[in-house]
């Protein structure tokens, strides 16, 4: 019981920290990762807050998992809904209230911050993955596709990024909204995956040492 409480406490803590970091990255204005960049593009198009757009996208991913897996869908993964709500509302609060006047004039500082933030996000998301609890709904949707048709998870996740990039380019050119794909997007695509692969197993060992989880390999978690 104590182990589960500690794991869920860490999950909530990581989500809040990730939300804050994403809000800062939006203000740094060097581009976001493809999924978040697509949410920001649709925010520009609709006038809906970016965290709210992200919630909508995440809800669609949950429904997609249910449609793909049917009776095999585990009810514990419905926790992705409150996770998405917490993530979206925290991003909105910090982006539009706490950091509403935050700006960075120096391009060098913005690039340095972008790299630091990508490293931090990789570490924090690795911290969530290592817990073995319900993950973000996008990753859950990719896992559902993997279980349904057998395409490797990494390839599915990469194709989602390509889809997001293509969607952003099309809507930006058609509706003339501000570009959300920039150098930070490229850095995220190059750095995030490898860093996640480094941080996740290391954090699994840390959690095990602290008695928070019983470690399973990533492959085992995917196949569950």
Rg calculated over all Cα atoms: 17 Å
List unreliable stretches of 5+ residues.
none
Q: How many beta-strand segments? A: 0
Structural class: mainly alpha
Helicity range of the residues? over 70%
The secondary-structure element order is HHHHHHHHH
Largest sheet: none
Global mean pLDDT: 91
Write a brief structural summary:
With 224 residues, the protein is mainly α. It is built from 9 helices and no strands.
How would you characterize this protein structure?
- The protein is mostly helical and 224 residues long.
- The protein contains nine helices and no strands.
- Helix 1 crosses helix 4, helix 2 packs across helix 3 and helix 3 runs antiparallel to helix 4.
- The radius of gyration is 17 Å and the shape is globular.
- The model has no long low-confidence stretch (mean pLDDT 91).
Feature tags:
about 220 residues; 9 helices; mainly alpha; globular
Helix/strand layout:
Layout: H1 2-28, H2 34-46, H3 50-69, H4 80-98, H5 107-131, H6 137-149, H7 153-175, H8 183-210, H9 218-223
Helix pairs in contact: 1-4, 1-5, 2-3, 2-7, 3-4, 3-6, 5-8, 6-7
